[in-house]
Automatic annotation (TrEMBL):
The keyword Transferase does not apply. This is NADPH-dependent F420 reductase. SUPFAM superfamilies: NAD(P)-binding Rossmann-fold domains (SSF51735). It holds the Pfam family F420_oxidored. Residues 10-104 form the Pyrroline-5-carboxylate reductase catalytic N-terminal domain. It comes from the Bacteria. It comes from Nocardioides potassii. InterPro entries: NAD(P)-bd_dom_sf (IPR036291), NpdG (IPR010185), P5C_Rdtase_cat_N (IPR028939), STEAP_metalloreductase (IPR051267). Keywords: Oxidoreductase.
Length: 221
């Protein structure tokens, strides 16, 4: 358990109306954090926030307003809109810890697979665009189904946190630790983000084969 205190932070979730974004918002709000959901459609974000009102402090607005409001900003958008969104919000995200949660994946008849990314990974692309932000990669391998299910009281998985800024990675590890069952664990530098993002394709394949919601655990730490 981290000794970094995140209790006073506001957590913004860009793409907060999708399953992963809503699920993470649910868990952080339930842990007592203030959460701002962002969306291209502010009304849709407000509606999603209303659905979580009984869980904790959640409000919804535009992606731009959410980015400006958050102390820590999670990017949980589809890969095909990743670059465009971050380029449009570089000013709002300057000086903030930005957590990229995006997995560049493709799907065909053989199942899921990792897509090539010019910068190496979605996290590295974010770092290349957001030169004024402290970019960290995390929450890539967590099941949206479990996050969104209110009957699941413990998310028993480890979250690999990647980054070149020790203070920022410690902060994001502490953020993961507030969710019961979840542990934040340092997973390496930004240059190692590709394989963590790509691992989601393996987990989806596992889920399909075993009808499960697989996560990961790191042993001996």
């Amino acid at each position: 358990m981290s000794d970094v205190d995140v209790s006073a932070l506001t957590i913004a979730v860009l793409g907060g109306t999708g399953p992963q974004g809503r699920g993470l918002a649910r868990r952080f709000a339930a842990a007592g954090l203030e959460v701002v959901l962002g969306s291209r459609d502010a009304a849709r974000a407000a509606s999603a926030a209303d659905d979580l009102a009984s869980v904790g402090r959640v409000r919804g607005t535009s992606n731009a307003e959410a980015a400006a409001a958050g102390d820590v900003v999670l990017v949980v958008v589809p890969w095909d809109g990743h670059r465009e969104l971050l380029e449009s919000l570089a000013d709002e995200l300057a000086g903030k810890v930005v957590v990229d949660c995006v997995n560049p994946l493709g799907f065909d008849k053989q199942g899921p697979y990792a897509l090539p990314v010019e910068e190496g990974s979605a996290t590295q692309q974010a770092a290349a665009i957001l030169t004024g932000s402290r970019v960290v990669g995390a929450f890539h391998n967590v099941s949206a189904v479990l996050l969104e299910d209110p009957s699941v009281t413990s998310i028993d998985t480890d979250v690999l946190v990647l980054g070149d800024d020790r203070e920022a990675t410690d902060l994001v590890q502490a953020l993961a630790d507030v969710v019961p069952g979840m542990r934040g664990r340092y997973g390496g530098r930004l240059r190692n983000a590709h394989q963590v993002e790509a691992l989601t394709a393996n987990l989806i394949a596992i889920n399909r084969r075993y009808k499960a919601h697989a996560g990961i655990r790191v042993t001996d730490v």
